[in-house]
Design goal:
The complex is a heterodimer of chains A (about 120) and B (about 110). Chain A is built from no helices and eleven strands. Chain A has about 120 residues and is mostly beta strands. Chain B has about 110 residues and is mainly β. Chain B is built from no helices and eleven strands. Classes of the chains: A mainly beta (about 120), B mainly beta (about 110).
Chain lengths: ~120, ~110
């Protein structure tokens, strides 16, 4: 069964510093992988997705993620953190079972950006 | 504007009083799903629907019902709510399965006392 693991439930960085949020996946087939962001009191917004085209995926708000099959990883990065990046981030894998499909989410990483 | 609309945003109810959370999407998406979000547990799928009149259970379906009579609407029904159903609920839709990604509603925060 497909699953994702996010390392670190809380990450704190200084404004202007590198953001690195870790995600490892488990999948017996080539996966579809996603990163979502949730701002306080809002729904989830798609940041970027990997669909087996380029391994380096660029998303919105300056974020990008690199798919590494050998490491089963899909870490999210941003070169320079901004105060507005403070939010919770979820990695997800598209899981298929029988004829159905769903997104399986990691438990989330809350990003704090310090001035 | 393409969106998924959930109502209500906030709801406080008493144990056993039936309630419905509505979900509507305007993107002509085939696939719709309900998730609940709980601290430390992330998001877990309750039910999903692959098209009109086609629904199936997700990971945590107990205590919930759904229906899909029209493509745009996918209401979540709690026939007899209990305190352990206090949670943040999200409806989501997708054009199809796989790599399209989901569009999420803004969420419904439900408290059952």
């Amino acid at each position: 069964a497909q699953s994702v693991t996010q390392l670190g439930s809380h990450v704190s960085v200084s404004e202007g510093a590198l953001v690195l949020l870790r995600c490892n996946y488990s999948s017996s087939v080539p996966p579809y992988l996603f990163w979502y962001v949730q701002y306080p009191n809002q729904g989830l917004q798609l940041l970027l997705k990997y669909t087996s085209a380029a391994t380096l995926v660029k998303g919105i708000n300056g974020f990008e993620a690199e798919f590494k099959k050998s490491e089963t990883s899909f870490h999210l990065t941003k070169p320079s953190a901004h105060m507005s990046d403070a939010a919770e981030y979820f990695c997800a894998v598209s899981a298929t079972q029988g004829g159905s499909e769903k997104l399986v989410f990691g438990k989330g990483t809350k990003l704090t950006v310090n001035p | 504007e393409a969106q998924v609309t959930q109502n209500p945003r906030y709801l406080i109810t008493v144990t056993g009083k039936k309630l419905t959370v509505t979900c509507s999407q305007n993107m002509n998406h085939e696939y719709m799903s309900w998730y609940r979000q709980d601290p430390g547990l992330g998001l877990r799928q309750i039910y999903y629907s692959m098209n009109v009149e086609v629904t199936d259970k997700g990971d945590v379906p107990e205590g919930y019902k759904v229906s899909r009579k029209e493509k745009r609407n996918f209401p979540l029904i709690l026939e007899s709510p209990s305190p352990n159903q206090t949670s943040l609920y999200f409806c989501a839709s997708s054009r199809h399965r796989g790599n399209y990604g989901y569009t999420f509603g803004s969420g419904t925060r439900l408290t059952v006392v």
